[in-house]
User: What shape does this take?
Amino acid sequence: MQVKEEKKEPRNARYNSNSVALRPGSLVMYIDMNSYFASCEQQFRPELRDKPIGVTTYDGANASVIAPSIEAKRFGVKTGMRLSECRALCPHIIPVTTRPYLYRIVHVEIMRILQGYCSDVLAKSIDEAVINLSSYRLVYKDPIALAQKIKEDIYKKYDYIKCSIGIAPNSFLAKLGTELQKPNGLVQITPENIDTHLATLKLTDLPGIAGRSERRLKMIGINDPIQMRQSSQALLRKAFGGIVGYYWHSRLNFSEVDLYSHSQTRTMSTMRTVSRAQAESKQTLESLLVSLCTRLEQRMMKQEVFCKELSFFIKYRSKTGWDTHIRLAQPVQDAWELRRYILDRIHEFEHTHNVTAMFSNQVQSMGVAIQNFISDTALQYSLFDNRIQHDVVRKAMYKIKDKYGKNMVRKGAEMFNPTVMKDAIGFGSVKDLMLDGDEVRNQYLLEED
Ligand SMILES: [Mg+2]
Assistant: This one.
């Protein structure tokens, strides 16, 4: 089986010492909780176990079932049906009003279990998570055994909540693996067995292929998933139009195009050259750092992501420099927090190396880069305790800025040194600054307009 070559590193990969680009031989595990909301209810209300229940958004005959239990599904009850329709198929269905807080608590516990095995766990939704095991291949030689261990751990905590696990070289195929066996499935898709699995499926069984895509495929003579997998990239590009065809070709040929899709870029970076006058003031240098972090915060807000890794560099006029890479304890979007991580690291270095001032008058430029993104929808459910409130406040602030103009609201952080901060306030109109070797294009981005 031909494995596609690794994707080209992004241009600014020089800060990306822990690149997320998946190498051939990557390994992804996808976990999908079965009939999640209904199973949670059955977990905590044993009288509902083994019974057809339908979780509804509110109490009433017209309510829609947002989550049928495994038992109700056997009667043909589907998500989205009205209770009256469900009763026609399954007269004994028990309606249960949804309790989202409960599902979030269970989600957090399950994420904790997964994170105990691997640091690279991404919550895809409240009932799905993907674990990138690529760097753990030597730790977990047998991924099936690992999946069984995870199931056991979940069983010990919640004996009624089951999951289907898919294992594959990329997240799309791993997710497909979860679809093949429900409930309580465990399927590994490999280059050797993929066609056996695909042979049992229709085009619309592939996650992401619905009526319209199916028609486009059939129009050019692709009638089933095996034919689709054997199609050239050019043909799939023709069917889907450009990049989407490339994605589909990649997915079915074991390359990763979905795992970090929430971030168009794998690294966001920003840097500033520092004038001699600016370098004379330590406070100005620290303000510049705040402005760099604020730009990144704005871009993360726009792309609706948080970052889990951070790099920082300082260059001095003597052509020497210092850089550092930080893995963040928790995903971060807030500029002030990014800054704190950087300053802590600087102080730590100053202390251990007996250097007095990293922010000296010799600073010529500095930059911050962030990577390893996680989508903020995935985070919503993770209950990052008091941080949620913080994030809500920040979001509200951006909304007001968008509506009434960016000078309407400024955080305390931005008032720190208004002249320096000025260029970091703009939001929504300017393209990312890119580092291009040592050259900086569009250095004066985010000008007030
Ligand atoms: Mg599910």
